[in-house]
Amino acid sequence: MKLVPRGLAVAREAFARLHAWPEPAGNEVVSSAVVAHLCRDIGAMVTTGVGGHGVVARIGTGKPVVALRAELDALATSDGAEHLCGHDMHSAAVVGALAALQAGEAPRTGTVLAIFQPAEETGTGAAAMVAAGIDQLVPTPAVLLAQHSSPLPHDVVAFRPGPITSWDETASIDLTAPGGHPGLIGSERHALTVAFSRLVHAVDPRIGQVTRARLGGSANNALPNSATVTVDLRAADEPSLTSLRQALGRLLDDVVVEGVAYSTAATRTFDGANNDPDAAALLYRAFVEHGRSAVLMPGPSRTSDDVGVLANALGAPLCYWFWGVSGSSRMPPEDRAALAAGRAPVSVPANHSPLFSASDLSLESGLMNLLIALSAWDSPRTIRGETQTDEPARTRSSPVETTEGNDSDRIRA
Fold this sequence. Notes:
9-stranded mixed sheet; single chain; 11 helices; 31% helix
């Protein structure tokens, strides 16, 4: 596919502005304004306020209808938020793809929808857009395309038909016990401290990973009366996730000592996403034909994503893939072995690491991935044996704002 200078220029502008102003889940005020403003500038019809700070942009008319999805939020950190998962690149690549299509730098047939989703990190954004009636605002897509950055070489894409991401749940465990004066407790160990320590050390990686552990305490000379431990549970399917919950419950019964009470709650949940086999096969052929190194994963990624909620609500086959953002163009042997075993590459920092970063080639490769994927649906296709048709958007009231590309009342970011 030929170079797309206009698309790349817009993508770079979007990335610079989004990366400079990271916002955690549910607070994507500036981020949504940035993508809405840039999409209007290239002539897209833009709808804002979908499920909080969600944005939907639309170019073209007729069929096929193809949807692109990207996320707006940054990873919440102790200092606020930081783009350590690549969502700024995801959204910038989608904006750039729309710009390239509008400028005639890539062929376009039919309608392209861009869905910029808030609150992916908390697993609530897709559901919020569905509750806001996104399925009533847009025609039914022939496919929903989504990509996610990964510590793979920049010319590699990885995906598979069927399950592509894991089922995930964050279990928050609250421990409580009487506090008091450390000098008056006697010679015994404080029960809450014992239970807290035993729990943190007893969580088996086959069950989950401890992501937070906080032993409360209001003063240096006061024994704490509360503690919180969060455990991340991940599984390939729903029954397996249920088994992990049960195993964690048995572990709690074993390690919590007398005098300590505990309660558990699920504070973050994701269902596993599934790639449509026919759509995945079509995408694989397109990537190979355009010279991409396409890797078929042996099993679903251990990461999670709520994109499947959007695909199901829109009635669209899903095609989701990972794209490499490291500076290397070759995969070391240890990374090939890790990938073959279904694990993340080990030679470069992974997503959510403070050291995670993308190479200069990452944004361009992500943009080109989207244009390659769109080219696979540049005419009406048959998915699951049924010819997809362009359905009109259904009427439903929704707290959103829709404007055309030439609207003078634009959001300023």
